[in-house]
Amino acid sequence: MDDLVERFLGGERRALARILSRVENQTPEGRDYLRQLYPHTGKAQTIGVTGGAGSGKSTLTGALAAEYRRRGQTVGIIAVDPSSPFTQGAILGDRIRMQDLLFDPGVFVRSMASRGALGGLAPSLDDCVAVMDAFGFDVVIIETVGAGQDEVEIAGSALTTVLVNNPGTGDDIQALKAGIIEIADVLVVNKADHPGADVLVSQLQAVLSLAPAGSRRPKIVKTTAIKGEGLAEVADAVAEHRAWLESSGTLARQRSEDVRHQVLSIARAIVLERIRATTPEEDLMALVGRVVARELDPHTAAERLAAAVAR
Amino acid sequence: MTAPVASKIRVLIAKPGLDGHDRGAKVVARALRDGGCEVIYTGIRQTPEMIAEAALQEDVDVVGLSILSGAHLELFPRVVAELKKRKVDDVLLFCGGIIPEEDTKALEDLGFSAIFRPGTNTQDIVKFVNEHVKK
Questions:
Q1: Distance (Å, rounded) from C-alpha A206 to C-alpha A192?
Q2: Confidence at residue B1, expressed as pLDDT on a 0 to 100 scale
Q3: Global ipTM
Q4: What is the mean pLDDT of residues A149-162?
Q5: In this structure, are residues A31 and A19 in contact, taking their beta carbons and an 8 Å threshold?
Q6: Do B41 and A92 touch (CB under 8 A)?
Q7: Do A21 and A54 fall within a single domain?
Q8: How far is CA A116 from CA A112, A121, A298, B7, in A?
Q9: Are residues A122 and A236 in the same domain?
Q10: pLDDT tens figures, A232-277
């Protein structure tokens, strides 16, 4: 066995950090590590924390991790911040809100840049979650990029999704809309010490009451994460959701749906890569030129590219 | 197999000690971001242990320390010692801030590859990082 994998399985944090980098960069080495570690995954409780920019996701994530530590559980955190669409650089600043956890050997925080991925995630996020899981953390918390109305992808990467809302950010019509609110397994009203928190809670309750009979209603929890208030209730609501997943038989279905989606999206990336690898840039640009000149439509052009690989 | 995602240079920018003047650190973080680096910014009042632990967890290629308090010869050796303790021994180190010329040798001996003082063009820092990272 590779020395690094051995050190990883022996619990060495430096080995974890190194393997996360290789896996994040999708190097051949990284793939190999993932292959070796994958049999050790599937044990962690995975929690996605999402919500708007500045809603308190990082602070809540840090405070929630502290709550799990009080409960004797170890926690891995992956915090995603956006990459620049122009320079591909990034400022990863989520750690600032998690300083209290820094010396706890039961916590490991890793920042990731979104590197062009959509949905508030990062291209290798699921793989990095698997690495954290294989390391043996009881809980892995994924904090997304600040999300708007439609960034629902996190629900496929975590078993339980916590959506962070704030008072004063919209009326009940916002809560009635489709999109991100539908993926919430736990609804947190953070900054509950600000005016309007109770109004938001009742608006959310009113909207949830419109759900079809028999569907599961997410629990609403008020928190003031910066003061550490309400976190035990969040952890309880997550546990309650997990118990429901198991008792309702949803867990097995969700796991297989998530893996199906993951495998298909990797396959899509492989096909795209083959197209890129087998199509000379001049040919691609010639095709692009024909679309620009309105001789072809984009779908026909794409079909021609795909057909070249199918053969 | 899918092609590897282009790996990025990861830089930790940290401010050890008690001075709260973080404008320089933020300007450098921003310049490196614009230079295509992934910059982990940990904020002010970091202890040497905090900086080393963040460098380990984030597996950074570069650690940049900013200091204006005059305590660099006190704090920087402790940062280096904490990094060594964690076997983080292959990172590129640089520093900046109010650092007298006569301390240059001591910092070089500690392993700092560059010292950027007031008036530095941020592009020189970006260039330095790009040229010196062992990738």
A1: 18
A2: 46
A3: 0.91
A4: 90
A5: no
A6: yes
A7: no
A8: 12, 9, 22, 13
A9: yes
A10: 999 999 999 999 999 999 999 999 999 999 999 899 888 888 998 9
A50/A193 same-domain check:
yes
Query: Does A115 reach chain B within 8 Å, measured CB to CB?
Result: yes
Q: Which residues of A touch B30 (CB under 8 A)?
A: 91
CB atoms within 10 A of CB A148: 12
Nearest CA in chain A to B4: A26
Residue A212 has pLDDT above 50, yes or no: yes
This prediction has a pTM of 0.92
Query: Within 13 Å and on the Cβ side, how many CA atoms surround A124?
Result: 27
**In which residue are the tokens 């330095």 written?**
B128
Q: Taking CB atoms and an 8 Å cutoff, what residues of chain A touch B8?
A: 88-90, 113, 115
* Interface touch A89/B35, C-beta < 8 Å: yes
| Residue A255 included in any domain | no
Q: Which CATH number fits the domain B10-130, given the four candidates 1.10.3720.10, 3.40.50.280, 3.40.720.10, 3.40.50.300?
A: 3.40.50.280
Do residues A209 and A265 both lie within one domain?
no
- Smallest CA–CA distance, residue B93 to chain A, in Å, is 18
Q: Distance between CA A221 and CA A227 in Å, rounded? A: 15
A233, A268: one domain = no
The string of pLDDT tens digits covering residues B20-71 is 888 999 999 999 999 999 999 988 889 999 999 999 999 999 999 999 988 9
Phi, psi angles (nearest 5°) of residue A304: -65, -40
Q: Which range of residues forms the domain containing residue A306?
A: 260-310
Which of these, A209, A217, A205, A203, lies nearest to A169 by C-alpha position?
Answer: A203
Q: Are residues A86 and A228 in the same domain?
A: yes
Residues A94, A81 share a domain: yes
Cβ contacts (< 8 Å) between A74 and chain B: which residues?
none
Query: Which residues on B lie below 8 Å from A271 (Cβ)?
Result: none
Number of domains chain A contains = 3
- Specify whether A121 is located in the same domain as A10: no
Q: Inter-chain contact A17–B57, Cβ cutoff 8 Å?
A: yes
